[in-house]
Amino acid sequence: MAPSKTKHVNQACVIPGGFTVLSLQFSTDSVAQHKICVKEHRVRAEKTTQRPLDRTLFVLNIPPYCSEGVIKELFSQFGPVQSVELREKPGSFEHSGPKLAKYFTPAQKQGFRVGYIVFQKAISITAVKSHPHDVPLVVSTEQRPVWTGLQKWIHQYKQSFAQPDKLQEAVDTFMQDYDKRKEEEAERQKEQAEEQLEDEEGWVKVTRGKSGTKTRPHSEVSNQKALQKESRKRKRKELMNFYTWQHRNTQKEHIAELRKKFEEDKQRIALLRAQRKFRPY
Amino acid sequence: HLLEGERFSTQVGPLFLCILPCMRMQRILNEGPTRAKRGKPEVVQNGLLRPVTLSRGDLYKPPTADELNQLKEAESLFHCSLLKMQMEELLKEVSLSERRKQLIDSFVQSVTEQLQTVPQTSDMELSDLSWLSGGVKVPFVLVPKAAKGKFHMAPPISVTIIGSYPLGTCTKPGISVDLAVAIPADVLHPKDALNQRYPRKRAIYLAGLAQHLAASPAIGAMRYSCLHGNRLRPILLLSPPGKDSSSFTLRLHACPPPGFFKPSRFHPQRNNIRTDWYTGLGSSQPATSEPPTPHYNSSVLGDMLPSAHLQFLTAVSSQCAAFAEGVALLKVWLRQRELDQGVGCFSGFLGSMLLAYLLSCHRVSNTMTAYQLLRNSLHFLAFNDLTENGITLAKGPDSTPSLAEFHTAFQVVFVDPSGHLNMCADMTACTYKQVQHEASLSLQFWDDPTVDGFHALLMTPKPMIRTSDHVFQLCELVKLQCCCKKLNLLSELMDHSGNYVLTALPFILSLLQRGLGQRVRLLTHSLTPDPEVSILLDAPKHNTQPPLSFGLLLNPEQAASVLERGPPADSPKAEEFRQLWGSRSELRRFQDGDITEAVVWEGETTCQKRLVPRQLITHLLQLHADIPESCVRYIGGMLDDVIKVGREVCSTGEEESLKVVQSYDDLSRKLWTLEGLPLSITSVQGAHPALRYTQVFPPVPLKLDYSFFDREKLSRSLVPHEVKPCPVYITPIQVICHMEGSGKWPHDRVAIRHIKAAFHISLGELLTQHHHYTCQPSPTHLDVWKDGLVFRIQVAYHREPQVLRESVSPEGLLIVRDNAEAQALEMATMQRPLLTSTLHGLQQLHPCFGAVCRLAKRWLGAQLFSDDITEDTADLLVASLFLQPAPFTPPGSPQVGFLRFLHLLSSFDWRNNPLVVNLNSQLTGEHTHNIKNDFIASRESLPVMFMATPNDKKVSIWTKQAPTVQVRTHTCSTFTSMSHPISYLCSTLYTVVMRPPLDPYDVLIHLSPKQVPLLSQAVDPPHATFSRGILAGRVANTGGALPVIDFNPVTHYLAELRDAFGDLALFFYDPYGGTVIAVLWKPKAFTPLPFKTSQMVARRVEVSGEEAHTVPNVEAILEDFRVMGQGLVKSVEPRTERWVV
């Protein structure tokens, strides 16, 4: 008996902020329920195809044992689900780098997550939002049991074995891909450099022989180094003890330093005295 | 002699310089408060040091000439003047206040008046005590009972204050003021010095005084005690009435009128107790053959001289301004070392006399400060052996006994100004050796700039249990009576008037010293404290004394040797050797061809060998002193049980660790010689506690029962079975393998990871090919199954952290930013291997380092703190105990190291001090100084526990993540409460120390023991054991299916819990076989929060009007605890209602 089809007396529970609260429990004989909050996804700035505005449901507080597959199953009762995206924190969609083999995807934190569920039809959203509060969604049923605890860890352990040849294959494909990208990058840079040789008005920048001098590396560290070198050079040229006021200043600084040191000592003693640190027993 | 004087002046010279500036410093200090009033904000806030900020005006105002001089001088003597300031503060703490002095004076006044009104009684027999009324007893053991002579009460002829109070050397705590009450001459008889008549009269006179004073309302509690534990010299203790009763005590000494006895009667060679009187047997011997009674003599003599001593000391101290302060410092120093009280102590009086001696022979000058006086007296003590070359304060060689005569009668000789009394009469040679040892130790660390000398010297208490490596107690002291009989000590017993404990002690000590020989550096014993009894009780018997404790400071190289090699069989010394060891001595032939007498003790493993001194001591005591083994309570390996590994052979893991290290060495060699890798290996380093001997339970080679496991389909590796108990836990031992740098390495983080995976694969292939090990590569590591152990090899590339730090800004600029990922990698591949090898080196220097680490970590685990104080942190903490032991010596047994570890945790002030762990002694004084300054400057942003090492002076990488502030406050309370059970350690249940208190936790998650793979490591051995798929028998070196590695359901469960509920609660668990996870809710998480999409973790919404708040959904969380640990969790027990919001 699917709860969405029968109309209960109880209405959906909507809280200030526009979220609808649904109940979720692990199995039919669980005694306590989690409260998950759902709302249609509505962010104006975001224009991605991954989260179409009218068909995406934003879900809060998804327990750790609900994987993408479980959520997809769970929400299919409101209409066909196109995709599910689970994340640690709400935020805009991010493109990940090059596709990695399963061995190299970093492990995720197994905490509570937020989800973006994309339905195939917009009508499913309203179905979810009108779901009554006291009819809980059930995660693990006899038809589709969800593994937790020992069973899950043993399963994970079995999955962790990597076939050396498969692993090698994954490495090889990635490295080929990587080399290709590197080459493309190098080629692009070369082209750019060639372009720079002659600008729009036909001027050509003349530099010293290419192979001779090494151009300065373009990094923060080297920039800082250069600056330091400059200031050191300047300092060397400066005369420190030339004017009377300079001499006076150094003396002043020295006394200030001594005073500071003395104050530090006094403070240390005062603190220890305050803490009765001088009582030997 | 002249040479010594020279050395003295060169040593003291520079110190001398600092007197003047120090005095000025003092003046400035006193000006301090007035300055602060001028609007400068208070720098010390809630007990935290802050960097000093002075306003520009304050810093740059024109200096006066005076201030300029002061500052300059303070700078040039910085280190010294800080120490000086600290000492001044300390002296203020121990000196008496004016108010208290007034109290004392008025009380002395009233007591003196009372004493003058003692009624006169008529003459009666000495043995007739019927005149004593009101239940007042005589403070003297009247054995033998017979006594001749007459006695009557009479008012004292004089009452004078003597001792430290009039001299001004009296210090807090335990202030006692001495009052000498002179017995009138007509009560005594010139021949009373004989046969205890004078001591008895004195005791009875005291009882008479007590009876008289008991009626007075101006006097509070009255008790009897005896001077420095000498039962022949009873004293009467008076406390003032009312609320001041504990502020000081007045000690009444009864003494003969001046010049009553001739001092020459008490020559140490003379007899004053007749044998026939003492034994009660009639056979009278001629007086010449009677044995001398030096101790009895000096006890009577000691009564006649106090006022002369006071005069002498007053004269000396009036010459030297800092005399009183110097004595006070010396007293503090002695008290911290438990040397200043009890029988044969180095009392404050001796301290004053020592300073007087140094002044009189010009070893110190009159103008020195207290600090210099202390230093020079310690120097004198450290380099002069009074057991061989006694010293005397007497001026001329008149009729007084010679030093040689004193030496024959006493162990330690220090003769008073009169030339008749040895002030160290009761001191044993061992006590003096202990004083010497402490003095030379103090001098060693005093000038070490990396050590806080002041703190170690004067502020740290050194109780015996934390000082000595092994401690043992003699419990039933009655047995010492038989011991005296066995050792034939009648004349000595007579000399000590029946105190068999004191009589036997020197003989037991010398026996043990002979037997232990080179095994110990120092043998110490506790000083029996002065008994204090009510005046209504009989004098305590000798057997009521508390047990005697002995401490051994072991010599690590020799203490654990099982062989005692004696002289060759035909040498004359052989007989002596046989006599010492009795039946244990046997003839043995050694490999070098010698045939000698030898004793062989039992002991195979290190932990058994550590207890060889115990076998030796019980054997010797049984053989020579008739003390049965049941009387000896030996505290040397009390805690070994909790880290025992082997079930058949008792071992605390040293042997197992060695096996692991050997297997690792073999693997490392094989890795080095591998050929066919694209890049060569530049280093192979261990990065696991087992490879530095500090793993609590080192991995043991295992033989697996294959039928117990399931198989993975493709690789045929073993996998756990769902219904069976969790298989045995196999620790992977991390090994870091650095590959050479090369242009071939890509400059991209993901690509590097792929390349490393490729290395793991090829390393695995090569190892299987050449050495037939079972290997399992994975992207992050390579597991190798070898000798029944699993090694986890991780390939590392030294530039990878750098690559992780680099990123390209949108403008195309290469920027380097530190991040957590790079730090973690650097820690795993560089710092941890380095730490492992450094600590491995430390273990080679100190053989018990590993065992202390293991005990400490076992305790942390049992107290559920393992996750907060990580393995590396704990190892470093223990390392600091070995590297900076001041004021102790490096721990010589696991037990003492562990006790000091507990003390460090409970007493170290983490808020204001960095803990500097000087690995390899790379840090100099300047470094430590800089570390401290940097620490204070940025205290707020630094971790709660800050530890600096030579490679990490500013960040404290090991304690960066944990413990956090909350955990620290939680643990802190536990540490302080934990410091108490230590004292029971000697008594009964040591496991109390190990059992965690579960009361403060909110929820307990009970785990099913079947699924806890490390169950057998629990503190309390489990009731049921489970088959975990291992077989007994020899372990194959190579081959076999890959076992289940690093599979512990509890760690998986904890990780999931922390990921999911880390914001709401803290989870505590004992990783060594715990079956309970303790949960503590974070109080902050339970305040209702306004509804926010980012703060909706395991919470439910409560709507009130227009506002929605969220609170943790506790029922659902508890349900989740069950769901997430299905198969592992037995029950979830909520214990408090704190979460009801």
From TrEMBL, chain A:
Residues 180-234 are annotated as: Disordered. GO terms for cellular component: CURI complex; UTP-C complex. Residues 180-193 have a biased composition (Basic and acidic residues). Signal peptide: none annotated. Residues 57-89 form the RRM domain. GO terms for molecular function: RNA binding. Gene3D superfamilies: 3.30.70.330, 6.10.250.1770. CDD domains: RRM_Rrp7A, RRP7_Rrp7A. Residues 207-216 have a biased composition (Basic residues). The keyword Nucleotide-binding does not apply. Residues 217-226 have a biased composition (Polar residues). The keyword Coiled coil applies. One of its GO terms (biological process) is rRNA processing. Residues 159-281 form the Ribosomal RNA-processing protein 7 C-terminal domain. Keywords: Coiled coil. InterPro entries: Nucleotide-bd_a/b_plait_sf (IPR012677), RBD_domain_sf (IPR035979), RRM_dom (IPR000504), RRP7 (IPR040446), RRP7_C (IPR024326), Rrp7A_RRM (IPR034890). Residues 248-275 form a coiled coil. Belongs to the RRP7 family. This is RRM domain-containing protein. The lineage of its organism: Eukaryota, Metazoa, Chordata, Craniata, Vertebrata.
UniProtKB/TrEMBL annotation, chain B:
Keywords: Chromosome, Nucleus, RNA-binding. Transmembrane segments: none annotated. One of its GO terms (biological process) is tRNA export from nucleus. Coiled coil: none annotated. It is found in: Chromosome; Nucleus, Nucleolus. Signal peptide: none annotated. One of its GO terms (molecular function) is RNA binding. The keyword Calcium does not apply. Gene3D superfamilies: 1.10.1410.10, 3.30.70.3030. InterPro entries: NOL6/Upt22, Nrap_D1, Nrap_D2, Nrap_D3, Nrap_D4, Nrap_D5, Nrap_D6. It comes from the Eukaryota. One of its GO terms (cellular component) is small-subunit processome. Residues 177-318, 322-460, 467-625, 640-844, 846-969, 998-1132 form the Nrap protein domain. PANTHER family: NUCLEOLAR PROTEIN 6, NUCLEOLAR RNA-ASSOCIATED PROTEIN. Belongs to the NRAP family. Part of the small subunit (SSU) processome, first precursor of the small eukaryotic ribosomal subunit. During the assembly of the SSU processome in the nucleolus, many ribosome biogenesis factors, an RNA chaperone and ribosomal proteins associate with the nascent pre-rRNA and work in concert to generate RNA folding, modifications, rearrangements and cleavage as well as targeted degradation of pre-ribosomal RNA by the RNA exosome. This is Nucleolar protein 6. The gene is NOL6.
